[in-house]
Amino acid sequence: MKTALDFSGRVALITGGSRGIGRGIAEAFLAAGADVAVCGRKNPEDLPSADGKTAAFFAADVRDPAEVEALVDAVAERFGRLDVLVNNAGGAPFAEAATASPRFSEKVIQLNLTAALHCAQHANRIMQQQESGGSIVNIASVSGVRPSPGTAAYGAAKAGLINLSATLAIEWAPKVRVNAISAGLIRTEQAHLHFGDDAGIARVADTVPLKRLGTPSDIAGACLFFASPLSAYVSGANLLLHGGGETPAFLSAATVNRGE
Questions:
Q1: Contact (Cβ atoms closer than 8 angstroms) between residue 13 and residue 40
Q2: pLDDT value of position 112
Q3: What is the value of pTM for the model shown?
């Protein structure tokens, strides 16, 4: 008997799936039996693999609508179908809002919001033609539900992505389910760029109620759930995957006796 997390015979496309969070997601779908396609602007040194299966790579800049259309069509042509899209590509460097250039802000919003919309539109076009429909998972961020100092355009884009997910869930039902994951602090190979050395990473992790940073596999597990029959009645949801969130700053500043 196949389990709900058996993706044999199903096809998943993970944008930005050759490293970091995207690589973890790709490897999880491969391990669950799916055929996996990943995309990026440059050929990676190696591709995600698991249990003897390796992801197929398609070169594409998801910020370019024409390349997105060609990407989705190429995946569907190669594998004959498309069951899952994970809009993972995204990110932004630190930039103060007062001095960020218009071009910088536009590029950040393009990568983190409009690229996901274009990918979703073309995936939906394929999925609506399939009897089994499909599932789209948008990787958002807690920056979309709280202030995002230093990454204002990124936070605004992720807030838009959360809203987009809920809207598309209504427009594309019942064939296609659309959900979002608002990721918290995740440790990847680039964590030091955001949090400093190992000591800095440890200090940041200590601020999380679960006392650790998230991992790509934490995000991947949620993606598998959203793409599986276990979430057959879940659409338009935004999962806060942040280890319990952030302890309010006033608690450490307050002098009132809390019985400690």
A1: no
A2: 98
A3: 0.93
Which residues does 156 contact at the CB level (< 8 Å), separation at least 6? 109, 144, 148
CB 203 within 8 Å of CB 59: no
Longest dimension (CA), the chain: 65
Residue 33's pLDDT is: 97
Phi, psi angles (nearest 5°) of residue 246: -120, 130
Among the listed residues 208, 228, 100, the one whose alpha carbon sits nearest the alpha carbon of residue 156: 100
Count the alpha carbons within 13 Å of 236 in the hemisphere toward its beta carbon.
10
Q: What is the pLDDT of residue 248?
A: 82
- Residue 192 confidence (pLDDT): 59
d(CA 109, CA 101): 13
As a whole number of angstroms, the distance between CA 118 and CA 107 comes to 15
Task: Look up 233 and say whether it is catalytic.
Answer: no
- Catalytically annotated residue among 29, 58, 154, 172: 154
Q: Give the integer Cα–Cα distance in Å for 161 and 175.
A: 20
Is there a cis peptide before residue 48, judged by omega within 30 degrees of 0?
no
Tokens coding 189? 């190979």
> Which residue has tokens 């995000």?
219
- Could you give phi then psi for residue 239, rounded to 5 degrees? -85, 120
Smallest CA-to-CA distance from 120 within 72, 173, 155 is with 72
Supply 195's token pair.
């949090």
pLDDT less than 50: residues of the chain: 1-2
- For residue 141, the SS3 value is strand
Ramachandran category for residue 33: left, alpha or beta (phi over 0 → left; psi -120 to 50 → alpha): left
Q: Is 234 exposed, middle or buried (0-12, 13-18, 19+ CB in 10 A)?
A: middle
Determine the residue type at 222: A
Q: What is the reported pLDDT for 1?
A: 36
